[in-house]
TrEMBL record:
It comes from Aspergillus keveii. Residues 383-489 form the Beta-glucuronidase C-terminal domain. SUPFAM superfamilies: (Trans)glycosidases (SSF51445). Keywords: Signal. InterPro entries: GH (IPR017853), GH79_Enzymes (IPR052974), GlcAase_C (IPR031728), Glyco_hydro_b (IPR013780). It holds the Pfam family Glyco_hydro_79C. This is Beta-glucuronidase C-terminal domain-containing protein.
Amino acid sequence: MTPVTKHLFLFASLPVYATASCVEYSIPRYPPRNAAPLDPTPIGLSFEFYMWPSYMTNITPPMQCAERLSDLYGRTMPIRIGGTTQDRATYDPEFEGYVSYVNEDPLVAPMELTYGPKFWDLIPEYGGETILGFNRGDNNRSNTFAAVVEAKRRALRNLVAIELGNEPDVYNMWNKSIVVPPWNASQEGASAADWAQEFLNVWKQPLPILAAGSYAATIPSRPDWPNVPYLINTAFNDSVKAGVKTYSGHLYAAPPNKTDLAGEMSHVKTVADLSVFNESIALSHGEGVPFILGETNFHPYDVHMDETFGAALATLDRSMRAVTIGIQRLFFHQGTINQALFNWWSDRQINAPFYGGYMAVQALAGGTSIVELDQGDSSYAVYVVYSGHRASKILLINTEYYAEGVRPTTDFTLSGLRASRVTALRLTAESSEVVTTREQTNPGSPRPTLGGQWFSNADCSAKGARKVETTRVGGGKATFSLKASEALLVYL
Ligand SMILES: *[C@@H]1O[C@H](CO)[C@@H](O)[C@H](O)[C@H]1NC(C)=O
Ligand SMILES: *[C@@H]1O[C@H](CO)[C@@H](O)[C@H](O)[C@H]1NC(C)=O
Ligand SMILES: *[C@@H]1O[C@H](CO)[C@@H](O)[C@H](O)[C@H]1NC(C)=O
Ligand SMILES: *[C@@H]1O[C@H](CO)[C@@H](O)[C@H](O)[C@H]1NC(C)=O
Ligand SMILES: *[C@@H]1O[C@H](CO)[C@@H](O)[C@H](O)[C@H]1NC(C)=O
Ligand SMILES: *[C@@H]1O[C@H](CO)[C@@H](O)[C@H](O)[C@H]1NC(C)=O
């Protein structure tokens, strides 16, 4: 090798950096007036109704991971048990198992199932605050109210809310017998009110207890589509409203292009997806009750991008943005095991989106209020979490997509910092497209890491060396570099 070619070889092997762009934010020392109050456990889990016993008793590591999230909160993570199969469930007081259904294909949810009283015994066994769903779609009041009475007897201590029907706005898609055409906001609203009143007569105390709405889609341009503002403004009278603990919406973003992860993970898209709830949030607060996302996840149909690291960043950003605009809690849905690609877990596997959920809990736990500093019009998100009067954590997210080639970097300069140095944990992966594997054998293989660590598929314990970054603050300012598709949690 001649000296010249050697020189060229060395030069060519140097990493090539794209010009860094930079953004600057000033951190308000005290919570600004527009800061949103934070619930102590804003991120929860939703379990598809017929899968609840399987998540609790059959597979690892979902409940071990839930325990890790509960450890971050210092209290048990809240859950919701419901979904499309809640409106296919018949209660049988004599049935001694958890659930029973004909399973033609384990990856397809059954159209009918039976469940017994043992189903609810798993709720006190879990031990956290639980929202429980019941069947309205099959229009069998005696069956549903018999179930309600027994569930109350067995699990009252943990029941914080009851849903009467899941996604009733799309009941006609499932040919549910309760549907009265055209099943617009008027018919659905009257049915919701009537069922709520009869339920309240059966339930009696404690009140309030209903999670109302639970619509699949919120479409502000379609006032005839069943919607929470209609329930509040028109369908519910004071007697029904006295029973409402919270209003609830569901959020899955239907991607216009099922392979466009870059567009789907972008902060601008997350902001737009959540803005459809503005009116529902404002009206709920006007009634003095919270608004939650009782069920949410990336997309409504199984698309590959749901299992990627990009989905983890979207999960993180959706969580932070939602609580910032006044949504009290989000319940991330866990659907059919080994089938729903957005699931945080499969059997013996932690999926990439869990890393985003974990970091959201890490960022929000212990916080009392939150404010977003960016304008929602770029790929960069900046959230400041306050504990009492003190800014305690800052979460930076660079939602730019990255697959291969030159990976752009953005410098986030923060001013108004009071410490002389700060520490931070980074969420990263080799690209937005990284997915996890069941084997986890090769420690060098691409996987998401949080603070240098990854979670073991065996028991959800943290593996690898923990990496805490320290940054010096000069004149109240510090700069943090985030590559495309990275997030950084800064501890003040
Ligand atoms: C409603 O459920 C009860 C059992 O609780 C059952 O006996 C009855 O046949 C059901 N009614 C309809 C219309 O399916
Ligand atoms: C609902 O009914 C329509 C018309 O009978 C049928 O084409 C469709 O397959 C049914 N859908 C379901 C989910 O059963
Ligand atoms: C309130 O609305 C419910 C449901 O429509 C109805 O059953 C009930 O009688 C109403 N209560 C009053 C006090 O008007
Ligand atoms: C729903 O449809 C009924 C019957 O066509 C109609 O009277 C009512 O105005 C509609 N409601 C809404 C909210 O569009
Ligand atoms: C969908 O997104 C992919 C990835 O960004 C892109 O290659 C493709 O052209 C898009 N398809 C359409 C129809 O826009
Ligand atoms: C919702 O509120 C946000 C923040 O106030 C605003 O930027 C957005 O335009 C609103 N969106 C809708 C659909 O009302």
